[in-house]
Amino acid sequence: MNRKGNVNLILLFFSILLGFMLVVQMKQHVESYNLVTLKSIQVKKNEISNSEKEIEELKLLIKEKQEELKKLEEFNEKGEDIQELIIEELNKNKVIAGFTAMEGPGIVIKMRDNQNIEIVGAEAKDDVIHDSDILEILNDLRVAGAEAISINGQRIMPMSEIKCGGPIIRVNGKSLGSPFVIKAIGNPKQLYAAINAPGTYGYTLKNVYKISIESNVEDKIHIPAYSEYFSFYYAKPKKEGD
Amino acid sequence: MQNQKKKVIKLFYAIIGTLIGVVVGLLLPITYSPTYALYVSVAILACLDSVFGGVRANLEDKFDVKIFISGFFGNAILAAFLAYIGDRLGVPLYYAAIFTFGGRLFENFATIRRLLLFRTKQKQ
Of A7-21, A115-129, A198-212, B30-44, which gets the smallest average pLDDT? Predict the structure, then answer.
């Protein structure tokens, strides 16, 4: 009898444990019985972090806009002409877009085709400057922090093309012939190094392909504004906050 | 009839125990990460099966404490472990636990029913 009671007590105890576990599990409010894989948890985590990033960006935007609003309100209170502010902003935007002539210290690079008697390659094309050479040089200049660049008086814009046209190259739809004069405003030392340091593309052009490259650091370089008209056909501005 | 009553009392130990457990669980503020919900639910199924098996063994007077306790915990841990491994491998291995314990649950219940009802008929 004693043993039987023992058995019943053990059953009772474990039943209590079972009921307890059941209810604790039910209290979790698990909505679906789908398998929550580690992968899906990772995906959700990524989603959350992305959303948080977006929120952060939006907050920054709000701050920016509030500052702008404050400025405008200040103008309004003072009774000054708001036109001034708008023109100021327009000029600022023009500078950023490249529609303004710029001046400053920088570097002037003159590039000519191989003028040595010694011929490098088997064909004539190995001795002339190509569009890709110009592109490499431009990119090196940009890496070195060039703020404004022009080639033979053509301002290089974000969408400026550099196209092969046989013995010439075409930039901004204009044909440019050798010699090419590339002007760049920026830190003169860095720009100079970007062209002349051993291992750079300019160094290789000069010493292997015998292309004549002269680079001079100047204190005051004038770079003209973009003179063409440019309009967007396909790209449309994305609304803020989208 | 006396024998019959004893059997029902044996059954009631399990039912009352479960009810007490439910009340205690409702009163205690215990929660855990929902990540483990699947593992725990499979473990609960294993425990449920063990208790049914225990009740059945008790009715048959074949109850063994060691077998019961080892089954209760061992099955639960194995089931949760299977679910976890399946999770890591990307294969829902916890189905194995669900089918095994679910099937046995009904088997045990059927036996319990027969043990309770069959004796009654004999007595009549």
Answer: A115-129
Nearest to B25 among A8, A14, A24 (CB): A24
Same domain for A219 and A106, yes or no, is yes
Q: Do A137 and A71 fall within a single domain?
A: no
Count of all residues that appear for chain B in the document: 124
pLDDT at A109 over 70: yes
Q: Which of B14, B22, B72 sits opposite A23 (nearest CB)?
A: B22
Look at the pTM and tell me if it is higher than 0.80. no
Enclosing domain of residue A142: 102-223
Residues of B in contact with A22 (CB under 8 A): 18, 21-22, 25, 44, 48
Number of domain units in chain A = 2
pLDDT at A1 over 50: no
User: Is some CB atom of chain A closer than 8 A to the CB atom of B67?
Assistant: no
Residues of A (68-127) whose Cβ lies below 8 Å from B: none
In angstroms, the CA B12 to CA A102 distance is 94
Q: Taking the domains of chain B in order of start, what are their residue ranges?
A: 2-123
In terms of domains, do A187 and A119 share one? yes
Query: Is the Cβ–Cβ distance between A195 and A138 less than 8 Å?
Result: no
Query: Exposed, middle or buried by CB within 10 Å (0-12, 13-18, 19+), for B37?
Result: middle
Where residue A160 sits, what CATH number does that domain have? 3.30.70.1880
As a whole number of angstroms, the distance between CA A41 and CA A85 comes to 50
Query: In this predicted structure, what is the pLDDT of residue A74?
Result: 83
Q: Is the residue at A12 inside a domain? A: no
| CB contact (8 A) between residue A12 and residue B32 | no
ipTM of the complex model: 0.77
**Ordered alpha helix ranges (H), B28-93:** 37-59, 65-89
Side by side, the strands of the sheet bearing A168-171 are A162-165, A168-171, A174-176
Q: Per the domain annotation, does A170 fall within a domain?
A: yes
Per-residue pLDDT at B6 exceeds 80: no
Average pLDDT, chain A: 85
Q: Check residue B28 and give its pLDDT.
A: 84
